[in-house]
Amino acid sequence: MTALPTADSRFRGNDTLSALDHEAQKIVAKYDEKRAAVLPLLHLAQDTIGYVTPEAMEWTAKWSEVPVVHVREVVTFYSMYHQKPVGKHHIRFCTGTSCVLRGCESQLNYLKKKLKIENGDVTPDGKFSLEEAECLCNCEGAPMMQVDKDYHVDLTEKKTDEILDGLK
Amino acid sequence: MEAILSRNFNISNAWKLSVAEERGAYQTAKKVLTSSKPEEVLAAVMASNLRGLGGAGFPTGKKWSFLPKNNPKPVYLVINADEGEPGTCKDRYILERDPHQMIEGIIISAFAINSHKAYVYIRGEYVRPYENLQAAVDEAYTKGYLGKNALGSGYAIDLVVHRGAGAYICGEETALLNSLEGGRGLPRLKPPFPAIVGLFGCPTIINNVETVACVPHIMKNGAEWFAALGIPGCGGTHLFSISGHVEKPGVYELPMGVSLKDIIYKNAGGILGGRQLKAVIPGGISAKILTAAEVDVKMDYDSLKNAGTMLGSAGIMVMDETTCMVKMLYYATKFFAHESCGQCSPCREGTGWAHKIVTRIYSGHGKIEDLDELLRIARNMERRTICVFADAAAWPILSYIGKFRTEFEQFITQGKAALLEPAGAH
Ligand SMILES: Cc1cc2nc3c(=O)[nH]c(=O)nc-3n(C[C@H](O)[C@H](O)[C@H](O)COP(=O)(O)O)c2cc1C
Ligand code: SF4
Ligand code: FES
Asked: What angle separates helix B389-403 from helix B345-362, to the nearest 10 degrees?
C-alpha cells in the first residue's frame, strides 16, 4: 500500500507547503512518536496558508506518518482548524456564562451590526470573520473577545470600534 | 496573606529569565537536583497535603506513588494547561506572567518521578500565554536549566510545549493524552489509569499547571509550612477566579478553606452596583449552583462536597438579583451540547436534547412538563458514561431547576417579561 504522497510526486510546485518542510522536520523531531506532530503541523500549515487545505492535510499526513483520513478526522474534531478561508482578522466572541452575566449579548449584537455578519460569516471584503466561542477563560475581563492572537476585555461599543477600526 | 503562587503576577516581564532569576527562580530546583533524592521530594509532596488543583483534588503525592516500580519504559510528565472550565482563569496567569515558576516545578516533579520528558498541553486559544511560555522554555534551554544536564545536575529533562486546537474535552486527562498523541480528544476508559498506561502506552503523571507550580515552594519552605497554609488534609493556597456580578472580578490567591462569602464581599468588593446576590456557582460551570442563602461555606473540597456542590476549578461565578435562571441554563446547556465528544449516547443525545428543550422554553414555547423531562434526561446522564463530562452536564440542569423551579414555572406560564424584573425574593 503506502499510498502516502511524497514531497516529489504530489507536492511539486506547491511552494508554500514545501517551504515549511524544514520547520516540519524540527517539529516531528520533538516528539517521541511522529503521529504526535499532527496538531502542531496543522497549526503551522493553517498559520501559513490561512486555513487547512486538502494539500495541507496530505502534507501533515506525510510528515506524521498517519493516513490522510486520520488527519481529516482531527481537522473536523477541533474548532480552531478551518477548512475554508476565514477573514484576514478572525474574531472569537465569548458567549460563556460570565460574559453573558456581564452583557456580552448586546456587545455581540453591536459587533454583528457593525460588520453586517452573523456567526460563522466572513465580511464580503474578506477582512473579518466571526465565531461565537465558548468560555475563553478570561472571565474576569468579561465581556471579552479574541481578535487573531489577542484577547480584548471589558468590551464596550466604543472599545469595539477602536479595536476593529484600528486594524488594517 | 503573603503571596506565594501569585508573587510575580504584577512584576513586569517576570516571564523573562533574567527577571525571574532576580526573584529567585531555579534556586530550589538546583538545590533539589544536586543534593536530594527523588524519594525525598515524593515524601515532602506527600507530607505537604498538596491536592491536585485541576478540579478533582486528588492528593498529588499519592498519584505519583501509583507509578509502577522497576518499570522498563520511559515515564512521562504531562502538564494540563488546557484551562477551559467556564469561570476559570487562573492557569493563564501562571502561563503568561510567571512561566518559570511552572518550569521549575516541572523540573523538580520530573526528577521526583524519574521522568526525563515532560509535555505541557496548552489550550490553542492561549496564543500570548503560549508565546511567553515557549520563550521561557527556550531561555531555560539556552541556560542549561533544561536539557541533557539540567541545572548542571547530570539529570536530563526535555520539555515540549504542545498547543491544543479548541476542544474543551481535551482538559479531561485521557482525552488530553489522545490529543497529544495526534488524534481526536476522546476520553479513554479507565482503568487502566494513566500512571500505568498513559502517553504512548507508557506510565504517565498528569498534573495541572498550578499543582506543579506549588512544588518549588514546598521544597523551598518545607512540607509542614505548606500544609499549615491550608486546612487539615489539604495544604497550601489556591488561585480563586471570580467573575460575573461583582465589583472587582479577578484572580485572588487565598488559603484553602477561605469563606466564599469573604471572597465575594471582601476580595471582590461585593455585588455589582450594590444589588442583591441571587446565586453563585463556586467551581466552574460543572459545579452545582448555590443560592444566596447557601454561600456561607468554606472553599475547600470537603466543605463544598458537604454543601452538595464542588470546589472543581475554583472558578466562582456570581449572579445578582436581575439574573434570569432560564437564560443561564440556556447558555449552560449550549456549552455542554457543543463540547460533548459524542462517544457515549447518554451524553451525546442527552446534552443535545436538553439544550433543545431549554431553547424552546427560553424562546417562550415551553410547557410545564418540560421541566420534569429535563430532570429525567439529566438523571439519565449521570454515572453511565466513559468520563464525568456527562455528570457535569447534568448538574446545572438538576441544580438550576431544583433550586429555582418557581422561576422556571413562571417563565413558562407568564412569559419572559415577568422574569426581567428583579427576582429579589429568591
Ligand atoms: C471534562 C473535564 C475537563 C477538565 N478540564 C481540565 C482542565 O482544563 N485543566 C485541568 O488541569 N484539569 C482538567 N480536568 C481534570 C483532569 O482530568 C485531571 O484530573 C487533572 O488535570 C489532574 O491534575 P491535578 O491532579 O494536578 O489536578 C478536567 C476533567 C474533566 C472531566
Ligand atoms: S461522557 Fe460525553 S464527553 Fe465524556 S466520553 Fe462520553 S460522550 Fe465524550
Ligand atoms: S465566559 Fe467569557 S471568558 Fe469566560
From this structure: 30
ipTM (interface predicted TM) = 0.95
Q: Could you tell me if B29 and B203 are in contact, meaning their C-beta atoms sit under 8 angstroms apart? A: no
CB-based contacts of B62-65 (< 8 A; 24+ apart in sequence): B63/B195, B63/B205, B63/B207, B64/B109, B64/B112, B64/B113, B64/B205
Residue in chain A lying closest to B330 (CA): A97
pLDDT tens figures, B287-332: 999 999 999 999 999 999 999 999 999 999 999 999 999 999 999 9
Would you give the end-to-end CA distance of chain A in angstroms?
A: 48
Q: Assign residue A61 a region: left if phi > 0, alpha if psi is -120 to 50, beta otherwise?
A: alpha
Distance from CA of A11 to the nearest CA of B (A): 23
Taken in order of first residue, the domains within chain A and their CATH numbers are 17-77 (1.10.10), 89-165 (3.40.30.10)
Q: Is A103 left (phi over 0), alpha (psi -120 to 50) or beta?
A: left
- List Cβ neighbours of A117 (8 Å cut-off, separation of 6 or more): A123, A128, A129, A130
Q: How far is B280 from chain A (nearest CA, A)?
A: 11
Q: Which residues of B touch A97 (CB under 8 A)?
A: 86-87, 244, 281, 285, 317, 328, 331-332, 335
Q: Which ligand is nearest to the CA of B52?
A: 1
DSSP of B133-188: HHHHHHHHHHTTSSBTTGGGSS--BEEEEEE--S-GGGGSHHHHHHHHTTS--PPP
Q: A 15-44 residues with CB below 8 A of B? A: 30-33, 35-40, 42-43
Q: Which residues contact B330 (CB under 8 A, 6 or more apart)?
A: B355, B358, B359, B361, B362
pLDDT in tens, A13-44: 367 899 999 999 999 999 999 999 999 999 99
Which domains occur in chain B, in start order?
17-229 (3.40.50.11540), 237-320 (3.10.20.600), 325-419 (1.20.1440.230)
Cα–Cα distance, B165 to B403 (Å, whole number) = 36
pLDDT (tens place) for every residue of chain A, 168 residues total? 334 444 343 343 367 899 999 999 999 999 999 999 999 999 999 999 999 999 999 999 999 999 999 999 999 999 999 999 999 999 999 999 999 999 999 999 999 999 999 999 999 999 999 999 999 999 999 999 999 999 999 999 999 999 999 999
This prediction has a pTM of 0.96
Per-residue pLDDT at A12: 36
Asked if B117 is an interface residue toward chain A (Cβ–Cβ < 8 A), one would say yes
